[in-house]
Amino acid sequence: QVELVESGGGFVQAGGSLRLSCAASGSIGIIHTMNWYRQAPGKERELVAGVRSSGDTSYADSVKGRFTISGDNAKSTVYLQMNSLKPEDTGVYLCNMYSVTYGRYYWGQGTQVTVSS
Description:
- The protein has strands at 3-7, 10-13, 18-25, 31-39, 46-52, 57-59, 67-72, 77-82, 91-99, 104-107, 111-116.
- It contains no helices and eleven strands.
């Protein structure tokens, strides 16, 4: 059974930094895409950043220049370095990974990020 576990969330003041990690345990097979989403109170879940096995990355406009996503397929782990954090970055951050082997996405439970002004 595959499980994705996020870590690294917490409470930080505006302008600060956090580094999130998401590691998959179990046999997830070949990973094609790793993504970070966030869920803010009263808002829809949004895609924050993604990285493909090719190394290509993509970012939401709201985080470009501040967040950096990186993935380690050998370790089935994805990271999100978040700098210059703003109060509007507050939310639950969830990772997901797409397994080519099993033809499905796997989701983590999320980690809370709170940015105070």
